[in-house]
Amino acid sequence: MIAAEAGRGAGIKAMSVAKEQLSVLVKTLPHFEGLPLPQHMTEGASGIDLLAACQEPVTLQPGDRALIPTGIIIALPKHLEAQIRPRSGLAIKHGITLLNTPGTIDSDYRGEIQIILINHGKEVFTVTRGMRIAQMVLAEVVKAKLEVVDNLDGTRRGAGGFGHTGH
Fold it and tell me: 43: alpha, beta or left, given left = phi > 0 and alpha = psi -120 to 50?
């Protein structure tokens, strides 16, 4: 949590409030053996880098997609989801991204986390064992109850679709 305080003549001062680190239970599968546990790669990283737990290299031709195993299963608290996102370095350097992004791991899912990679690049790309292929970001889940009504309040935008934000 970040709090901002405006001081007279001092501008804005940011204060950081430390939060307790959350523990997430992880079960590793036999094909994960020998790989390091996924982790935040820097102190400020919001994502946990996920690794390819493939036994053999997986070659992606331009336009190809493949389901890549990570070798891990997680148990999240009920108020959280895990969002699976692409790694920007793979995207910019090789055109490698995720088809289902962000992918969602629900708190009641107990299957292996697998990553749907696609090669949007112009060259062949090979996924090798232990390669960092995606990142997992934990997020709070807000539950909603949908309520049917006859009318909704009007807005300036109204029913304007894609590209109708006024700019």
Answer: alpha
Q: How many domains does the chain have?
A: 1
DSSP 37: P
Query: Quick one: DSSP state of residue 47?
Result: S
SS3 133: strand
pTM: 0.81
The pLDDT averaged over each successive group of 10 residues in the chain (167 residues) is 45 55 93 96 94 98 98 96 97 96 95 98 98 97 96 87 65
Look at residue 155 and tell me if it is in a domain: no
CATH code: domain of residue 123: 2.70.40.10
H or E stretch at 51: strand 48-51
